[in-house]
Amino acid sequence: MELFSALFAPGLVCLAAVCALCRRADIYAALTGGAADGLKLMARIFPSLLMMLTAVYMLRASGALDALTAFLAPVLKALGIPPQTVSIMLIRPLSGSGALAAGTELIAAYGPDSLIGRTAAVMLGSTETTFYVLAVYLGAGGAKKVRAAIPAAIAADLAGFTAAALAVRLFWR
To answer: Which residues contact 86 (CB under 8 A, 6 or more apart)?
Structure first.
């Protein structure tokens, strides 16, 4: 099985190259054209991504994240969500790497088998970097009317966070 997984990607690339040669396609032109299109897309979405990442780091450095955690703690406890996971709930829609760092801190502090550690891990696996996805897909598509997409995506994230906390309580308590 390990041999198969080690040879799968190179085999797939070779198969694509053989198919392209059989069709007499210009492989080099296709690759360089794809790279050029990718660079154009990156130039279009880079400003949005840069601003989003800056906002995440500003929230963490300013202490606003800690203040919001204290404010939301009673509501989260009533919903069965550990208040310590609010950092993941706020950062995850903006930044996957920022949320992973917050989850790593929680797991290091409370342990991987704790309620908080497990909830953090399941939250990371059951939600998406919503605003990143919206910036990439809507920006790449040139969408202008996105008013309905943002509330729907936030509602999906809230459902994912709540379901993650519920699943951890049901399966590991």
So the answer is: 65, 68, 69, 72, 73, 76
What DSSP line would sit under 76-98, residue for residue? HHHHT--GGGHHHHHHTTT-HHH
pTM for the predicted model, two decimal places = 0.65
Q: What is the pLDDT of residues 91-148, one digit of tens each?
A: 888 878 778 888 898 999 999 999 999 999 999 998 888 887 887 777 777 777 777 8
| CA-to-CA separations, 43 to 29, 61, 87, 94, 109, in angstroms, rounded | 21, 28, 30, 19, 39
Task: State the CB neighbour count (10 A cutoff) for residue 117.
Answer: 21
Residue labelled with tokens 């040669």: 21
- Of 5-14, 40-49, 64-73, least confident by mean pLDDT is 40-49
